Amino acid sequence: MSSKHVLFVSGSIGLGHVTRDLAIARKLRALAPVDITWFAAAPADCVLRDAGEALHPDCPRLVDMSALAEAQTGGGRLSLIR
Question: Is the pTM of this model over 0.90?
Answer without folding.
Answer: no
